[in-house]
Amino acid sequence: MADDFATITQKRMTGGLRIDGFGGMNIHVDPGPGALVRSYQFDADPRKLDAVMVSHSHTDHYTDAEVLIEAMTRGMTRQNGTVVGSVSVIDGYRDWGPCISDYHKRKSRCLTLSPGETVEIGEIEVMGTGTVHGDPTGVGFKLRAGDLTVSYTSDTEYFDGLSEYHRDADVLIASVIRPGNDHIRGHMCTDDFIKLVEEVEPGLAVMSHLGMKMILNDPEMEAFRVQEVTGIRTLAARDGMKIELDESGIFNMIR
Question: Domain named Metallo-beta-lactamase: which ranges (predicted)?
Answer without folding.
Answer: 26-209
